[in-house]
Design a protein that fits this description.
This protein has 272 residues and is α/β, with parallel strands linked by helices. It has a single domain, classed as Rossmann fold, CATH 3.40.50.1580. Helices cover 31% and strands 24% of the residues. It is built from 7 helices and 9 strands. Strands 5-8-7-6-9 form a 5-stranded mixed beta barrel, surrounded by 4 helices. It is globular and about 55 Å long. The N and C termini lie far apart (35 Å). The structure holds hypoxanthine (HPA). The site of hypoxanthine (HPA) has 14 residues, from strand 5, strand 8 and strand 9.
Amino acid sequence: MTLYDRIQATASFIQQKTTTKPTVGIILGSGLGGLVDIIEQEAMIPYSEIPNFPVSTVEGHSGKLIFGKIGNTAVILMAGRFHYYEGYSMQEVTFPVRVMKALGVDTVVVSNAAGGTNTTFNIGDLMIIKDHINICPEHPLRGPNEERLGTRFPDMSQAYDHDLIALAKEIAEEQGVSVRTGVYIGLQGPTFETPAEYRMLHTLGGDAVGMSTVAEVIVARHASMRVFAMSVITDIGVSDVPITITHEEVLEAANAAAPKMAGLVEELVRRL
Ligand code: HPA
């Protein structure tokens, strides 16, 4: 089956399982599972039951699609995402984004846990992603282009929607939540970076670094969807002394910041 046919088959399967017609798609990052509570849930499908879906392998990622409402907005939420470092191809990593589009989604909200490479950042900070730098070794659009999915050479000049960024900043101010804005660098992992690499990423213009998001955003833009993305800074890599980082600490810091992010994302989606 071609990619296009697989997308259609998966979308048809999902449409038989739920009457929700989502216009907004939300992808939850590591340790941000608590954000499911912002949804009035109408249906849930484990990834393991969805044809053509890979199965998530990482601790802290439960692996299900949740359908429901935030205010009057119908949403589809991915609790658990697929990472390149797990062994999936970039096409597999981004397959759910394609399915979201086929289901009628026009706006994607992407979240992640990321390491800070900006020396003014603190653990627990929220960062609105205003742009990205892609240094992943594989590109999700490599190969023959399927014109029904998008154009061969997508424009990336405004990958992160300026109106959504402005709205999110407005909401953050109303809620008394301080947010940073910055550039996210996506790389493959699964190692965290060496001190020299964190410094390099900072020099390259990155404020945060992580192992997800970039491929999903590229595919969302290929599919002409609007994107809003946000990181929770779970560790700070740039320092004169090496700082050890564990996945557990990343999850803990993300969990702690999740309520702040949940409040912001909930209100943002309500106002879409
Ligand atoms: N580097 C890469 N990915 C991450 C980090 C990091 O420091 N923290 C959370 N995800």
